[in-house]
Automatic annotation (TrEMBL):
Coiled-coil regions, chain positions: 96-127
InterPro entries: SDHAF3/Sdh7
Sorted UniProt keywords: Chaperone, Coiled coil, Mitochondrion, Transit peptide
Protein name from the UniProt record: Succinate dehydrogenase assembly factor 3
UniProt subunit comment: Interacts with the iron-sulfur protein subunit within the SDH catalytic dimer.
Subcellular location: Mitochondrion matrix
Homology family: Belongs to the complex I LYR family. SDHAF3 subfamily.
Pfam families: Complex1_LYR_2 (PF13233)
Length: 132
């Protein structure tokens, strides 16, 4: 979806209504995490959401609209997914091509950290006596 089309879906940027919309989305995602995610995934997800929303405060209008659109899509996935273990999808290569080098590096780092986290959760679920 283009920026111009997305722009029509939300209140004017940097207005009080815009802030209410973004904060409402933030709260909705945290509530969905509480209802739908296991504790370990919720902890990681909540930390990531809080960090991303904090960083987005300095975004320009185009970045902010895209940010809200992507997080709204994520919230919709969480709301509609029947089996929470199946949540996730591949990122469209066109979207990856539009990312800056810094964003690509952040995405790669997120992938590495989430894989480490998943391995640790799997290890703990197989042997709950391990706590390191």
């Amino acid at each position: 979806m283009s920026f111009q089309l997305n722009r029509l879906l939300y209140p004017r940027f940097k207005t009080r209504q815009w802030k209410v919309t973004v904060f409402g989305l933030y709260r909705e995602i945290l509530k969905l995490h509480l209802k739908r995610l296991p504790d370990t995934q919720r902890y990681l997800g909540d930390s990531y959401v809080k960090q991303e929303f904090r960083l987005n405060k300095t975004a320009n209008e185009e970045q902010a609209v895209e940010f809200v659109t992507q997080w709204k899509d994520y919230a919709d996935i969480l709301k509609n997914e029947q089996n929470i273990d199946d949540v996730g999808q591949e990122i469209d290569p066109d979207i990856i091509n539009e990312l800056s080098d810094e964003q690509k590096a952040q995405l790669e780092q997120l992938k590495i950290e989430s894989e480490k986290f998943r391995e640790k959760v799997m290890e703990l679920s197989q042997d709950p006596t391990k706590n390191s």
